[in-house]
Amino acid sequence: MTPSAAPKGTPLIREEAVCSLQKKDINMANCIEPGDNPDLTEERRKATFSVRSMSEFIFNGEDKLAKRMEIAAYVDATQDLHDPRPVEFMSRVERHDNSTRKV
Predict the structure, then answer these.
(1) CA–CA separation, 6 vs 43, rounded Å?
(2) Residue 83, CA distances (Å) to 7, 39, 45, 96 in order
(3) Are 29 and 45 in contact (CB under 8 A)?
(4) What's the rounded Cα separation, in Å, for the pair 22 and 26?
(5) 3, 6, 21, 93: which one has the fewest Cβ atoms less than 10 Å from its Cβ?
């Protein structure tokens, strides 16, 4: 789901993706969902690495990944931090006002 297609109040990080990172030995085949692009589905089935291990590598360790996931969960749960409508459809002034509202 693209940010512009997300209904108001919908978190941009899918809960399934966040939950799947809790499991230590998750692989890309578990990230396949109905309606996914067939090419992506094929590539995910070929993957041989752990999603959790890759995430820990990208974010420089398990503790930093856990902190990032905690922050993402907080942002998703806090309605004041959600955009009233997609920023792609806001004017420059509206984007500025929206950003200052969040601070």
Answers:
(1) 25
(2) 10, 31, 35, 12
(3) yes
(4) 9
(5) 93
54 with 31: CB under 8 angstroms?
no
| Residue pLDDT, tens place only, 20-51 | 555 555 667 777 888 888 998 888 888 888 88
Rg of the Cα trace of the chain?
16
Instruction: Decide: 50 and 25 in contact? Cβ < 8 Å.
Output: yes
60: left (phi over 0), alpha (psi -120 to 50) or beta: left
* Confidence (pLDDT) at 13: 42
CB 26 within 8 A of CB 1: no
Residue 30 near residue 20, CB atoms below 8 Å: yes
Encoded tokens for 72: 């993402």
- Other CB atoms within 10 Å distance of the CB of residue 4: 10
